[in-house]
Amino acid sequence: MNKFNVFLLICLLIFGNNVFSQSKQVIIPDTSNKNIDVSLKNEVHHTIELGLKWLLKQQEVNGSWQNDPAITSLVVSSFLRYNLNFSYKDSFINASFEYLKKCIKSDGGIYLKDVPNYTTSICLMAFKDASNLEFNNIINNAENFLMGLQYNEDKGYTKDSLNYGGVDYGYSKNPDVSNLQWAIEAIQYKESYKVEQQSDEKAKKKKLFYNKALIFLAKCQNLKSVNKESYSGNDGGFMYAPGKSKAEGTTSYGSMTYAGLKSMIYMKVNKNDKSVQAAYNWVKNNYTVEKNPGMGEQGLFYYYHTFSKSLSAYGEDYLIDSKGIKHNWRTELAGQIIKIQNEEGWWQNQNARWWENNKILVTAFCILSLEELLK
Q1: pTM of the full predicted structure?
Q2: Which of 117, 126, 135, 265 is nearest to 194 (CA)?
């Protein structure tokens, strides 16, 4: 363990328990909120705190986690969203932002070499979580970078193209729902918090980005009334990309359907819109907290993360599945995530696809999911 982490661990041992226990008294919601009962709320807080303490011990001497800006940002956001007395001014979080600043490119992207869209999107949300006016230019430039990745007229694409409106990794020329949903979330995240008065021109640019993104999403939804392509099914779910699914063929599956649903709601599509309702019906028909529908253990923790944000954004406290069973989805998802936590505080997927055997990555996913449930 390096000297920096030894210092942090000593601080945590001296001050940490008091900080965590005091924060419980402050942030546990009023007991009149019946979405999660009081005992489960306490267990959720304990689970999050155990995970955060474990994550703190994993920080590198340069302020990062695993020398990866995206993973670092997920961890930083998991601390900043927990409503403790954490801020960008805390030494260990400030060290993380100093590391992230070194990853900023001249074009506004925030990444090292690979997956510039994914990484910039996740880093952008961490900078927004800091609520620091000094990060205004970083935020503005990163948003412009992400919007500049969209396949549109500027890149020679028309609405007839399957790629139109999409976003890819930043170099693949194969846009997909997963990349797009990260960009959408990052751009619209904390819209109510404006580090400076947003110009009308910037607002129009975002609106155009969203409108074109909806055209791409329609070509990824198995819904014939909106997707006129020959490959479209009609169950309302989402595939990975136009005519392509990670669940084989053009099959709808869990994580992408939640990603599509979440993205539409984040872009202010009305809940009664037929595309939104079709996606939500797919969710009801395939509801489970034990696996990623259509993918099993693959991408399970990404699924939990997207599940929690999607249903939270949809705004219904209960979900009635295809068998007529009423589910308190917050309680059920929280219970499942708590059940599979290691006693040391981490989570891990035994299926290594999409890095989910990486304890730090999926631990951050789980903590962010639980924090979403507490909103």
Answers
A1: 0.90
A2: 135
